[in-house]
Design a protein that fits this description.
Layout lengths: L1 E3 L18 H4 L3 E2 L2 E4 L6 H8 L2 H6 L1 H4 L3 H10 L4 E2 L10 E8 L15 E8 L4 H7 L2 E5 L8 H15 L4 E6 L4 H9 L3 E7 L5 H4 L4 E8 L1
Parallel strand pairs: 1-9
Antiparallel strand pairs: 2-3, 3-5, 4-5, 5-6, 6-7, 8-10, 9-10
Amino acid sequence: MFRLLTRQPPIQPATEAFVFVDAPRAITLIDRDLELVEPAQRHIDDLLAACHHPLTKKDMPVQARTTRESLQTFLEQSPRGRTFPDAGRGITAGYTFWMRIRPLPPDSRLLPLPVTMAGSISLRIGHCENLDFFLGHIGYHVLPPARGNHYAERACRLLLPLARAHGHKVLWITCNPDNFGSRRTCERLGATLVEVVQVPRDNALYSQGDRQKCRYKIHL
């Protein structure tokens, strides 16, 4: 089913009363060799090494152009990976975590990966047309040298308790129809494909080249 949405109601009012959950303390963000960490200065070198890995340069050239300056700017604008709500600018509150690969135990049968950072994942809080239909509540990317370990799926599962802590009963994940890797991730999460929608011309995603979005629904 294809639907074209053109009217975008305003985001729910953002207030200074929004309270972030101290996720690393209140919620476990570790799944065996995967750990979600708050973005911090001490992780920049490892993340840059993963972004500049030959496989990333080959398969994700945009991510391969990540610079130290861009990461520093992100840390300044989103301390601890937290995005503060700003209804006037159409920004909802959210969290960003970097995926860190934990050292393997001595008796592990897994082969060590060539990088120690796998990518990033974001959780956006609240409901509005842009989140529910186009942008989605969860966004993620796994860098090529760390692929093949279901890190995207596992990272999403780690964030579900955090979404529940903010009162979410439903999450939407969107992806382009031809992004089969992301679609498989949604299916492994148990998400249901509800429909495919057309991206309006006045949406920021349209200017990035996105024309359609698959809408996957997760009940919490």
